[in-house]
Sequence to fold (285 residues):
Amino acid sequence: MSLIARNLSKTYKEGVNNQTVFTGVSIVLDKGETLLVVGPAGSGKSTLINILGCLESPTTGTYLIGETDPLTFGRSKISRFRRDYLGFIFSEAYLLPQLTVLENTLIPCLATGLPLKADVAFAKELLEQMKIDNCQGLYPETLSRDQQQRAAAVRAMIKRPSLILADEPVSRLDARAVEPFVDDFLAAQKSCGSMLIMASDSPDFKEKFDRTARLEKTRWTISGRRKYGLDENDSVLNIRNESEPAPALGLDEDEYIQDIEMTQPKPEPQPEEGAELDAFRRRFQ
Fold:
């Protein structure tokens, strides 16, 4: 699975004026590759993460994951696409306080049924890689911020997504915890085989990533040659004219949208209404 983004731009209308956040963003990644996007606060890093995560649409540009163009999907399809192909981690962990660490990491599995034994085993493996396997039965309120963020990273990886998007995941960590977190996160990400795009204010750990991009004052510069495959400046087939605005993420369920090939296993039978959490917890007994 690869990612190809070409000439993405984002402009917001503010009354009669337009505010351009960034222009000319092009990214090419392949399975397992990592990209660190750095830039000062307000430079558009979070907006770029939102676009790549299909949470908002670009003003212009093209975006492919594999052979799929998610920008053409309607609301239902785009939700399924995010569920099956993307993993997210943010500056806050957003763990559910009523669930243990292990249960929190398995929440994405609920989208297609209940977690399988293989999911539980993989979650425990990732928790060990993130060095919080001793916390799996604890509740979030008993954890440090670093431990909470490590649990959130496991949650983002549990479904082995094609692409992990990390928006400032170390911005709220103690300075001494940043480098160990990044090291463990990258090691676990490699075991998943997922592509990773991480945004950060700081370039201090850029040497740990395959490539680094800087976004500042609408300018996009990328450094580091890819290990293999196409580069941002190589010619590839585009599915749309890049000079035309990108379509908004569709909300009309009756519109024609291209089918997406789903490769996820069939979901298990759903528990009876009101018993979801009990059934979820019974998986761990």
